[in-house]
Amino acid sequence: MIAARAVILAAGTSSRVGRQKLLMEFHGRPLIEYSIAAARAWKPLVVAGPQVAGYLSGRSDVTVLRNDAPELGMAHSLSLANRALPQAGAIIVLLGDKPLVGAALLESVLRAPAEADLAYPMRDGIPGHPVRLSTRARRYIDDLPPGDTLRWLRDRAGLRQWAIPTEDDGAFFDVDTVEAFDI
């Protein structure tokens, strides 16, 4: 297994769905369970809003870091995780609403060359998730602008990127609407 620590971002407000989507059932189990299962081998740290943190409370297969300000977006959640983990070493960042991401996709991203500061799947010029961030890239997490994007890190001069060509739909499919639960 490739060394890294998994970070699952699960503090979103689910505004398009109208309730906490990560606790809604997707093909028989809560949506958040898919990301946890995929990341299990990398000791996942789940940055969760209050409802998801409550659901995960007391579990031994994850470490939960509660984000009481989910409205500040993905960058804030990632910053909380970055500060909570030892600064040395890579992290692999997953999103809690991407149920088709599997351990094999994580492995392929983690196998990117060690000199890559950011590694991520790519298809037809579109970057996907999960994203591996090196120790060097992690130094810039607190500089991310507010909101829901890692694009700023991908565009930062001086950080070496490694795009991994893939046809794996898991890298691109997410559950953002009620209709997506039926797929």
Brief description of this entry?
The chain has six helices and ten strands; from the N terminus they run E-E-E-H-E-H-E-H-E-H-E-E-E-H-H-E. With 183 residues, the protein is an alpha/beta fold.
Task: Report what the structure shows.
The structure is a single chain. The chain is α/β, with parallel strands linked by helices and 183 residues long. The protein has one domain (5-182): Alpha-Beta Complex (Spore Coat Polysaccharide Biosynthesis Protein SpsA, Chain A), CATH 3.90.550. Helices cover 23% and strands 21% of the residues. It contains 6 helices and 10 strands. Strands 1, 4, 5, 6, 7, 8, 9 and 10 form an 8-stranded mixed beta sheet that branches. The chain has a two-stranded antiparallel ribbon with strand order 2-3. The radius of gyration is 15 Å and the shape is globular. The model has no long low-confidence stretch (mean pLDDT 91).
Feature tags:
single chain; alpha/beta; Spore Coat Polysaccharide Biosynthesis Protein SpsA, Chain A; two-stranded antiparallel ribbon; 183 residues; 6 helices
* Strand element count: 10
Class computed from helices, strands and strand pairing: alpha/beta
**What letter string, H or E per element, gives the SSE order?**
EEEHEHEHEHEEEHHE
Instruction: Return the average pLDDT rounded to an integer.
Output: 91
Query: Distance between the terminal alpha carbons, to the nearest Å?
Result: 31 Å
Radius of gyration: 15 Å
